[in-house]
F-box domain-containing protein (Mycena rosella), 222 residues
Amino acid sequence: MVLTRRAHKAISRWLPNETITEIVQAAPRSDQASLCRVSKLFRDLCLPILYRVVELEADASVADFGATVLSNAALTDYGLDAVENIFVGLKAMIPSDVPFICSNDICDKIFSAVVDSLSRNLPHTRTLQLCLYDSPAWNEVIGHLKNCLPRFTGLAFLSVHNSSWVIPTRNEEEEINVLGDACSTLEVCRLDRRAWRKVDGMWETYPLTDFDALAGLESWTL
C-alpha cells in the first residue's frame, strides 16, 4: 500500500477516524504496519489494531517483540527485562477501558515475571490464561498468584494449567478460596483440570468446556 502525504491529508480531512479504523482493520497486516509510519494520526489509529493479537511461541520471539515495542535496538538476548518491555509497551497502546485477554505458554524462568509485570502494567486485564511447562512447584505458583492478584481491578477469568507433569494431590477447595479472596472480581477459575464458578459468593465446580467458551479461550487438549 502506497499512501502519499497529499492523499493522507485528504483522507484524514474528509473521513472520520471511525471510518479510517474500519478500513485499516480490513487491510493486511503488512499494510497496517506501513500505515503506522504515515503520520502520528495513523500511528495512533493503526498500532492498537496491528498489535491486537500477538502470538509469542519462543523465548527469542518474546525478546524480539519486547525490543520492537520500545524500539530498543540494544536488546539482543532473552532476559526478564524483555517481559517488562512487552507489558510496558502494551500499556501504552491499550486503553484502560478495553477488556484485555492475556494468554501465555511460559516456563518457570518467566512465570513470576509475566504475572508480576502484567498485574502492574495492565491491571484491567479481564482474562488471564497461563499454560506452564517446566514450571515451579505448584504451591509456588499459587503463592505468587496470591501476591499478584490483588493488583488486578477487573480480572474475571483465570486459567492455570500445567502441561509438563501431574500435580500431586492437594486441597483444591482451599486453593480456589485463596485465589478468590485475593481477587474479588474473579468470577470463574480453572486450576489445571478442574474449573470453578462463583455463585452467590460460593465457589462451585464448573465444566471445563463451558469455562473455555465463557472466557473466550480455545479449549486445551488434555
Remarks:
- Residues 70-79 have pLDDT under 50 and may be disordered.
- DSSP finds ten helices and six strands in the chain.
- Strands lie at 100-107, 125-133, 157-162, 188-191, 194-199, 202-206.
- The chain has three domains: 1-50, 55-93, 95-222.
